[in-house]
Amino acid sequence: ETAGTVIKCRAAVTWCVNEPFSIEVVEVAPPKAHEIRIKMVYTGICGSDDNAVYGKFKDMQFPIILGHEGVGIVESIGGGVKGFKPGDKVIPLFAPQCGQCRCCKDPRTNICTTARMERPKGLMADGTSRFTCKGKKIYNFLNTSTFTEYTVIDEIAAVKIDENTALDNISLIGCGFSTGYGSALNAAKVHPGSSCAVFGLGGVGLAAVMGCKAAGASRIIGVDINKGKFGLAKELGATECINPKDYDKPIQQVLVEQTGGGLDYVFECIGDTETMVAAINSSHHGFGTTVIVGVSAANKTITFDPMIFLTGRTLTGSVFGGWKPKDSVPKLVHDYMEKKFDLDKLVTHRLPFEKINEGFDYLRKGKSIRTILRF
Ligand code: CND
Ligand code: ZN
Question: Residues in domain Alcohol dehydrogenase-like C-terminal (predicted)?
Answer without folding.
Answer: 203-331
